[in-house]
Amino acid sequence: MEGRDYNEEAAKNVSEELLYNTMMRALNDYFKGTGDNSTYFQPHCGSVERGGAPTKKVAKKEPTKKKTNPYIVFSVKRRKELAIENPGASFVELTKLVSAEWRGLSAEQKARFG
To answer: How many structural domains is the chain composed of?
Structure first.
């Protein structure tokens, strides 16, 4: 009887050690990015690429859009007009003209673009 208990205990220890070694090998492979992890880990139930049922798609939240700066609204509108009036002007020259006009506007005039 004593020998049988010893054999059962030894078999249990061997099986635990085998399980531990397999798990450690799997974790090492997983974190190193090597090996075929499918032999160690079960796929997620919702993993379609591994034959599971498709998961619910969660709607992505749209980022909140900031209110457009009044200067930007003014510059887009005015740059188009200035480009027609000054066909040879570069983007930099047009920007200088727009910014000079913006600085010359009163607070009430600027508020119309906000």
So the answer is: 2
